[in-house]
Every structure is written in structure tokens, then in C-alpha cells.
């Protein structure tokens, strides 16, 4: 998802177009990464790639496409993929050897289009494990194109694929169909693939040429007949080239079946959640973060940065003496009119005061610019601490866990398992995939809503995602704060968030016309995730997180800093105080968290980190900030995906819902 399509350059216009085409989840993106040296995401669920991605290989422009089952315009992925396939000079059709019968339909259709095709018969390792034998030579003869057995994850067969691409040829087309195609192509001067699509009744292509051909164009539609014949031919070919000695794939098969079993499936979810809690909630959020945030971030990083600045500039230092339980038992302040360097007397006094005591320093700089950069909320102090020492370890933990889920093949099974439940909120099980991805990054998940087939489903899930699902960075802070607030607080928080989630779903399901669509999803085999892919994916996502979040954090902190030194912050805090103090019953400083939260919710949640809240205040505050506006990046993506009106409507709803629900929770609890 991190390579984006850009406008075609002049040079590229003259280059040949190599398009990767195949059913979902067959390994196309691995081929793309290998050919172009770029990185696009690879996961074990159908619908990982949702847009066209572009790169280069030798004298080819290479395109990765979303997985499709056929060339038509039934849904977004197909429309997107079809448009680029129309322009292809060479097609590299990636086929799953284990599901040859399913995948050959598309292969035959591509061959019928008359384009040069190379077939990569991928997943040969799994076919072998399942004792599936394929006569590759015979398959190649029947199709009339080069077929190369490959194992993409091990780059087996890739050299041969590269060679074949250079020499790709058109294959054996269905004779009768080819005649009709050439008739239409010649008569109207359109391409073979356009003629094919017209004959197959593709609505988009028909709309495009309708005015030119009058009503005649509809008479050509033979979709049903062609599809049936092609299906039969695929089956015929498979019966000739494939022999199976059944059995095999025992353990992964068993786990796969447990995951969708009505009873054991539930236990399975429980186990997955508990493991996730142990790793992220306990190990990382409590133990690791305590060390990185407090020790590395506060005591080492921030202290040294401020001390360095204090060498040269006027500063007042408050020294708090702490007892074993970190409570303040004594405190004294030292004023350095000209910085540490030029006030050796005061420095000596301070040093002798702290001797042998457990202490904590507060630096109050006089210069407003220094306050903005090195003060309590400083751009170079607090922001860096939150980003690197609080969020980074947590985010890496979440991303890694998510990557394991994605690559194991569990997500499509979870989709099957929750299908019935999801229908109550007007969705089918597939919607669980963007939802789970939302716990990583709501922005990314909003793009993934494209794997849902109807606009209605996309609307519902986008609203739920943007309003109720906390992203990894935010979840990170929430987990840490809830661990502090205790078990009861955690339960109340989860219950409240879940209720809002269900309520939004039920309401939207009621008011939007239409209903849930049936679940159509292929269950890929369960696989042990590959370490190299896990590391690569986590690293790429972390890198983009730091880049994205970093920028907004610095901007946010700068704005808050300026507001602070100009006195605007205090005014704002006062103005908001009926809302925060009266209605939400939080300390007035909580307003600052909301201001930071407009920029990024996780930043806002982190703002609570510094406040001294009771467990129930924590719940009320966290509920409010979770439901509060999504981060600016995800707002942008939502506006792009859902349009200005719908996007803004969701955004504004999140304000209203956040303060209403947060207030209700607070009135009940506190
Ligand atoms: N065992 C095995 N796994 C493979 C092979 N090729 C791909 N995979 C796995 O198949 C899954 C799908 O790979 P992707 O490259 O994301 O597939 P894709 O065709 O781009 O999928 P979509 O973008 O969803 O259409 C990943 O979990 C890969 O690790 C192979 O040859 N052998
Ligand atoms: Mg892909």
C-alpha cells in the first residue's frame, strides 16, 4: 500500500506494459516486489492489494493489480484491474496450483482476449504437500502459452519467468469466440479485448460503445453461454493434467477447521485474544514501556536535553525529593539567572541538596521559545518522548501481532465465523478484516474497505472504523492507562466501546436502504507466517507510522506550545471547562488533550498520560477521546474514499457522539 500510482511519465508511454493478473491471494504481490524491487504488502487473505501499483522492470512498466476471479465489472477491484489489463502488452497470470480448477477460468479468459500471456503456476510447494501432481507440459500445450512452476516465497522458478516474459505469446483461443471477436474488431475498429468484453456483456465496455453501435451491441451478449463453456473447459483441462493422491496438510487443516467450528472457534478467538493481551497488554504495555517511557524517555532523554539547554539560558529548577513510592516529600527551587554555566554557586547548592536523595527535576525556562521546544509539552522533549519511548515499542508490538494474524490465514476464517453476528449490523463476515486492520491503522483500514462489495457496507464500516476503532498508537496509550486504572475500569471501557460500536451499526443498518450481502470468500490454507515477511511488513509500517505521526506530532506540539506561551491555551481551557470539568468531570487540563486530539487521537490520549486521574475518570476520558475525531490522515483518506459530504458527516458525528457518550459515562460513574 505504500507505493502509489503516479501519472504516466513520457518515458513510460513508450515502454511495454507488463500486468500481473490472478485470483486473490495467489502471490501476485510477491512477483511484483521481485520484479520491481519495490515493496507492496503481502498477506494471507484475499484482498490485500486493493489498488493498482506501478513499478519498473527492465524495459517494462509493471503493474500489480487486486485479485479478481474474472474480467468484468461486478465490483470495484474488477473494474480497477480490468482497466489496466485492457492496456497490457504482456500479462503475467499468477495461478494457484492448489486451486487450479478455480483459477483456470480467468486464465482461459485472458487467453481469449488475445493478449500475450505467461502463466506462473505458483504454490507448487503446497501442491506437493497435498500430493497434487500437475503435468505442466501438457497444461502448457493445452493452453498454448508458457507455464512455469514456481514457489514465490522461495523465488523458485523466477528466472524462468523472467525469460518467458520476454518471449510471451498469445495462446490457444476458443475458435468460435475468436472468430466473433475478429469480426467485431474489424467492423468497428476496436481492440480484441474490447470485443471480447462486449460479447461477454461487460456493462462498462458496453456503456462506452453504446452510442457508436446503437442497439446492436446488446444482441452480441452471450455471457452465460460463454461462461458455462469456459468453466467446462477449465474442468476438462484439470481432469487431463492433475492427479491427486488425497490426504495431506493434516495439522494446518485441523487448525483451520477448529477456527470456524461454532464452539471451538469461539475458544480459538479467546485464546488468540488472550495471547495478544499477554504480549502487548502485559509484556510491552506494562513492563517494557515503563522502562522506555520513564527511564529512557523521562530520566535520561528529557533530563539531559533540558540540562544541556539550561547550561546556557536562564532557568528555574524545581527539585522534588521522592520517597520509595515516588511520592513527593520535599521540594526546593533554584534560580539560575544566567544558566548553569554562569551560576556556579547556585549549581553547587543544588548539587549538595540532591546528594544521596531520590529526586525529580522540573525545568522552567523563562524564554517562550525555549518553553515551546523544551518545556513540559516541548516539541523536542515531550513529543519525542511520546513518539519514541511510549508509542514506538507499543506500535511495533501491535504491528507485529497484526502481521502474524494476516499471514496465518486466520482472518478469512474469523470472517466466516462472525458472519452471522455481523449480519445484525448489516454487514457480512468480510467486514471483520478492515475492522481488525483498523486496530493497526484506521487510515489503512479505511482503504481496505474496498474489499467489501457494496457501497452500503463500505459506508457502515467506514463510520464504525472512524468513530469507534482506536488505532494501534492510540490503543497503545489506552492499554497502558487502563492497566493503571485496573480490571474493573478496563471492563467498563470495553463494554462501553462495544455498545457504541453495536449501536452505530444497528442504527446505520436501519436507516440505510438495502441489506447485508452473502459472504463470498475463499479460505486460504493456514500457514506458519514467514519471519522475513513479518519483519519486512512490520518495519515498513513502523517506518511510515513514524514519518506520518512524527510530522503531525511536531505540528500539534508546536501549536499547543504557542498557545501555551501566548496564554491562549489557558483561555481555551477555561472556555471548554463547562464541558470537561462540568459535563465530563475531568480536571480542566484535560481540555489540552482534546486540542491535541484533533491533530491525532493517539496524541490526545497520550495527553491523559500526564494527568492524575481516578480509575473512573480514566474510563470517561478514554471513552471520549477514543470516540473523538479520527486523525487528520485518516480523515483525508475518508474524504477521498467516501466523498466530502459523507466524510464530513462522519467526522462531525464523532464529535457529537464522543462528548455525549463520554458525558453519560461520566455522569453514571463519577
Ligand atoms: N507456501 C507458499 N505460500 C505462498 C507462495 N506464494 C505466495 N504465498 C503466500 O500467499 C499469500 C498471498 O500472497 P500475496 O503476494 O499477498 O498474494 P496476492 O495475489 O498479491 O493477493 P491479493 O493482493 O490479496 O490479491 C501470502 O501469505 C504469501 O506468503 C508460494 O509459492 N508458496
Ligand atoms: Mg497483492
UniProtKB/TrEMBL annotation:
PANTHER family in UniProt: FE(2+) TRANSPORTER FEOB, FERROUS IRON TRANSPORT PROTEIN B
UniProt source species: Kryptobacter tengchongensis
Record's protein name: Ferrous iron transport protein B
TM spans (from-to): 259-280, 386-405, 425-448, 460-483, 489-508, 549-569, 619-639, 648-669
Signal peptide region: none
GO molecular function, one term: GTP binding
Domain FeoB-type G: 15-171
Keywords assigned by UniProt, alphabetized: Membrane, Transmembrane, Transmembrane helix
Top-level taxon: Bacteria
One Pfam family this sequence matches: Gate
Any one annotated GO CC term: plasma membrane
